[in-house]
Amino acid sequence: MPTLLTRRLALLAEEKHRAVLAGGLRGIERETLRVDRAGHLAHTPHPVALGSALTHPQITTDYAETLLEFITPAEADIGATIAKLDGIHRYAYSKLGDELLWSQSMPCELPPEDQIEIAWYGTSNLGTLKHVYRRGLALRYGKAMQCIAGIHYNYSLDERLWRVLAEHEDGGKKLSARAYQSEAYLATIRNFRRYSWLLMYLFGASPVLSAGFLRGRAHKLETLSADTLYLPYATSLRMSDLGYQNDAQSGLSPHENCLDSYVAALTKAVNQPYQPYARLGTKRDGEWIQLNTNVLQIENEYYSTIRPKRVIQTGERPIQALCARGVQYIEVRCMDVDPFEPVGINQQAGRLLDAFLLFCALEDSPPVTPEQSARYTENFARTVKEGRRPGLTLNHDGAEVPLTVWGAQLLERIRPAAELLDTLRGDSAHADALAVQARKLQDPSLTPSAQVLQALRAHGNSFNAFALAQSEKHAAYFRSHPPSAEEAAYFDGLAAVSLAEQAEMEAAPQTNFDDYVAAYRNSNLCQSRLDCD
């Protein structure tokens, strides 16, 4: 009896449907700290030569002033996406002077909290709003957390693909095209949560961190050297409970069984007071310190491994966009920066992600019960903290199975999706990527996390020494491959336009900021549009 996955793969393999399978888009957001030549956090403002962090479409900052974020345009092929990411890096290095881009997800040795600058976006109401939001994050999570970096992978399938599936399945007769697409992306997210532990085993690259990062917090890490803490079998401490977490979010689990329940949960969180934050208030000595005292200031504060997304319009909130126009793409947020790759990710990882996400999109994805959700969370947590432990088991439908056995089975289930993608290209790039990952399951020493620990040995087991050496190596690569005159002119143009846009915003009449925040708060209400069965 053919499964839903095999039926869908066969349908998309038909000649008349090949074009829709090739029509999806991939984009990457790469975060990276600016550091000085000694590997310490840079104390310079965002370089004006790069443009405005508020309005530049490809070069901005994330939470800390020194945490750069590079955003590629969306491309049909991951090879083109990574080429664009490489171009952004090469241009940035042409403007950074002696500064380096940190090669790791976990930050360098950090100064005291009061010396970590929060990202600044100018004096306009929008820029001030973004800054105050980050003040709130510093208050709630600490500034050290605002220096963690990752790779975000934005992924969409051609909207025509969803219509093809809808025409051949009963669900298409019940839902509008927009509703079907939104629910299909939510189904993809559910499967991602079921299986994303595999990505952490294969690509986790943060088994160590700087000893000062935890700022005195209780932990169960082991000492590797005087300046380095680790867990011997960890894959990604960034994605563990040592990362971007706090008590307020611990009970927040947005429902992913349909878009309405997901939006409702986030809407509640941005409107529900949280007593510890209420005690702090929104202002201190007349200065704004957080946008509100609720569980979340805004919906993007919810830290998840994957999000349903929709490109927002000016002044629109993410919840509003999802309510009004449905899900457009998904954002995978769990990928560590690969410290061995100059841009933090390579094509092979992208090919595997594409096959994995296509599998998640086409595989049957029943609703998730609270018990199942807890099980998926536990599998993920085991993998990030001890994924390479010999004999480690995960909970698979109530039974404990070895991670390596389940992982190998999962890659075999993904293989037909990889082979279908290869038929579009006329090569074996996706199948080859799958084969490389399969070897990591057979030999854990091939995983990035194990490779990091191995490489540290040449640097006295010092995370900071290893990370600085990799940062210098990547800097040498980018500086020896400067942007062409045409590339430099393109980015110079983007920078000039972005600075002019920010200046125009700041010169325009500004409403009272208190009123601006009140209006922003009141814009998160939306009406139910989908039926959740």
From TrEMBL:
Give me the reactions it catalyses. Answer: L-cysteine + L-glutamate + ATP = gamma-L-glutamyl-L-cysteine + ADP + phosphate + H(+)
Q: Give the EC number(s) listed in the UniProt record.
A: 6.3.2.2
Query: Pathway of this protein?
Result: Sulfur metabolism; glutathione biosynthesis; glutathione from L-cysteine and L-glutamate: step 1/2
Please provide the record's keywords in A-Z order.
ATP-binding, Glutathione biosynthesis, Ligase, Nucleotide-binding
- Provide the GO biological process annotations: glutathione biosynthetic process
- Every copy of the Glutamate--cysteine ligase domain together lies at 10-381
Identify the SUPFAM superfamilies for this entry: Glutamine synthetase/guanido kinase
Query: Entry's InterPro entries?
Result: Gln_synth/guanido_kin_cat_dom, Glu_cys_ligase, Glut_cys_ligase
Gene3D superfamilies named in the record = 3.30.590.20
The protein's enzyme class: ligase
In the UniProt record, which is one GO cellular component term? cytosol
Q: According to its UniProt record, what is one Pfam family this protein matches?
A: Glu_cys_ligase
Cite a single GO MF annotation: glutamate-cysteine ligase activity
HAMAP family for this protein:
Glu_cys_ligase (MF_00578)
Q: Which PANTHER family match?
A: GLUTAMATE--CYSTEINE LIGASE
What is the similarity comment for this entry? Belongs to the glutamate--cysteine ligase type 1 family. Type 1 subfamily.
Q: This protein is called what?
A: Glutamate--cysteine ligase
| Organism of origin | Duganella callida
